[in-house]
Amino acid sequence: MTEISSMVITHAKATVEEMEDSWHGDLDLVLNQLYSNELVYECAVLKTCNRVEIYVVSSKGSSVLFHYAKEMGVSANIVEFYDHDESLRHLLRLASGLESMIIGEAQILGQMKDLFLVAKKAGTVGKVLDTAFSKAIQVGKRVRTETFINRGAVSIASAAVDLADDILDGLNDKNILVVGTGEMGTLVTRALAHRDMNVIYIANRTYEKAKDLAVELGGEAVMFDQLEKYVSAADVVISATSAPHYVLKKDIVEKIMDGRTNELLLIDIASPRDIDPLVEDIPHVILRNIDGLRVINEKNLQMRMVEAKKAEVIVEQELELLRSQYKRQKADVIISKLYSNSYGLRETEMEHAINKLSSYHTIGDFERKVLVDLTRAITNKILAEPTKKLRNAAEYDDEEFLDSVSRLFDISPIKKSNDATN
Q1: Is residue 375 annotated as involved in ligand binding?
Q2: Which top EC class is named for this enzyme in its record (predicted)?
Q3: Confidence band of 415 (pLDDT split at 50, 70, 90)
Q4: 190 is in an annotated binding site
C-alpha cells in the first residue's frame, strides 16, 4: 500500500552540529533529488534550526528513506524512521508545539506552512501529503485556540535572552549586540526590548534593515563592517543570521579579547552556526548555542504540562478523524477508478453498437439518447452495490478487501504527477 513514511532528525537526539552535517544542498535541490526517485510519488521537507524531517509517499518508503539517510551520511543514533501512522501523529504533535524544544512555541506552525508551500510550488506534493499537512496546520491552530499551551511559552529567541539573563545574573547595565535582523533576530530584539539594559546594538549586512528595526523597537543600528568594534563594546552577543559561514571567527574574537578581563557571552542561535565553536577556548569567553536552550525549556516545562496534556487529547481526537479521512479517500480512489473504467468501456461498446445499427438503420437523436440512458443506468446499477461495499470496508478498516478489489481491477491507488518538477 502507498502511504507516508518519514525520517526525522531533531534536537531530541541530535546536536546542532549533527543536524548541520546531515543537511546537503537547499530545499529545492533536496526535494528534486527525492522526487527523482521513481518509487517516490510525493515528498516534502521540513528544515528548521533544530530539525530536519523528510516525508515521502511511496509503496517502499522505509527502504527509500533508509537509503537516502545512508547517502546523507546520517548516523543511526540520531535519526528516527516513522511509518504512516507514526508520521501522522508526529505531524499533528509538531504543529501543536508538542515536539518543539520549547514546548508550545508558535513559530513552528508558520515554518510548517512556509516549508510545505515550498514543496507545493516545487510540484512534489499530491493529495496524500496535502491531506496530512492541511490537517496538521488546522490542529495546530485548534490547540492554540482551545488550550493555553503557548501562554508563557518562549521561542528560541526569547529563550536565548532568558539564558543570557541567567548566566549574567540579570541584564541591568549590560550592552547587548544582536547580529541579524531576520525572523529570529527580530524576535530576539523584541524580547530584549522589554528588558532593563544599557543599550541594544543591532547589526545587519543591510544597514537599512538594522536601522528600521532600531527605530521600531529602540536601539542603535550599527554598520556590519564595524561588527568587531561593537562586539568589543558588548557584554552579550546574540547572533542569528542566515550566513552560510561563520560571522564571528576565532581570530577576530581573540583580537577582541586581548587584554580584556570582563566576560563576553556569545549566544549562537543560527543554523548553520554563526560563531566558530573554537572561540570557547578563549579566556573569558562563554559560548552557548541552541543546545544550551534545553535548560531554559526545563524551567518552563512544568507549568505547561497540564496544557500539553490537553493538547495531546486534541491530537489523538484529530488523528482518528484523519485516519477516517484517509480510509474514505482510499475507497473513493478505487470507486472513482471503477466508474472511470466502466464508463470508458460503456462509451466504447455503446459507440460500437450504434455504428453497427447505423449500417442497417438510421439512428437519430432520440434513439441515441435511449441507448445513452440505458447503458448509463445499467452501469450505475452494476456499480451501486460494489460502491456500498467499498465504503463499508473503508469505514471498518477492511484493508484486505480494498486491496483485493484494487488488485482484481488493476487499480493503482496513486499515480505520480506528470507536471511535478523532476
Answers
A1: no
A2: oxidoreductase
A3: low
A4: no
> What pLDDT was estimated at residue 414?
56
Which region among 15-24, 195-204, 370-379 has the lowest average model confidence (pLDDT)? 15-24
Out of 40, 49, 227, 270, pick the active-site residue: 49
Selected residue with higher pLDDT from 285 and 303: 285
Q: What does the block give as the cell for 218?
A: 529602540
The pLDDT, as a whole number, for residue 305 is 80
Burial of 400 per CB tally in 10 Å (0-12, 13-18, 19+) = exposed
DSSP, collapsed to helix, strand or coil, labels residue 176 as strand
Structural domains of the chain in order of their starting residue, each with its CATH number: 3-146 (3.30.460.30), 156-283 (3.40.50.720), 326-409 (no CATH)
Q: Is the pLDDT of residue 301 over 70?
A: no
CA separation for the pair 151, 380 (Å, rounded): 55
pLDDT value at residue 420? 44
Position 402, amino acid: L
Answer yes or no: is 182 a known binding residue.
yes
48 annotated binding-site participant: yes
The answer to the question of whether 325 is labelled as a binding residue is no
CA-wise closest residue to 282 among 308, 264, 307, 301: 264
Distance CA 313, CA 354 (A): 61
Give CA–CA dist 27/24, Å, rounded.
Answer: 9
Strand, helix or coil at 218?
Answer: coil
How far is Cα 163 from Cα 283, in angstroms, rounded to an integer? Answer: 20
| 43 carries an active-site annotation | no
pLDDT for position 295: 64
181 is in an annotated binding site: yes
> 178 has which bridge partners?
202, 238
